[in-house]
Amino acid sequence: IWLGPALDALAWGPSAVTGSGKLAAALRQESVERRALHVAVARQGDHHHPRLDQALVVDLATVRTDGGPQVNPMWFLFEDGLIWFTHTDFRQKFRNLQHEPRVAISILPEGNPYGYLEIRGELDRIEPDPTGSLYTRLAERYGQGSVVPPDAADRVKIAIRPTRFSGNALK
What we know:
Elements: H1 4-12, H2 15-18, H3 22-43, E1 58-63, E2 69-74, E3 77-79, E4 82-88, H4 92-99, E5 102-107, E6 117-128, H5 133-141, E7 155-166
Antiparallel strand pairs: 1-2, 1-5, 3-4, 4-7, 5-6, 6-7
Helix pairs in contact: 1-3
């Protein structure tokens, strides 16, 4: 499912969804398609995995605007069925997600690289986080104390909705 119109709506605001133009129509169609996808994923069973509760550094893979891959280690938080990351609104990863909302996430447990969990997912939403609150939560989760990042004014919360789980951790 392409989320391009949804990302445009982030910039244009809620009135983009209620209008009568092509963007509004695309967003309404996207909403129907996304609900169908979430029903299909829900029917596959509970996708919560114990690794999602652990403070492990994950590799987040996105696609650059030139089509090339970009993979970075990231802190994360699994909450309410979403995988949350913090980032800034001016770096490459942010631009990648605006271009292509599909991602892959790899989680390796400490001491067992063969017990990996791969998660495929899609960008669910991006929320402004000008106080860096998610960064602070993640810093505490990962044992770094209560830290406010110096770039807090540029921070965003990125929510990824898992769509597929695979890997040796499921065996």
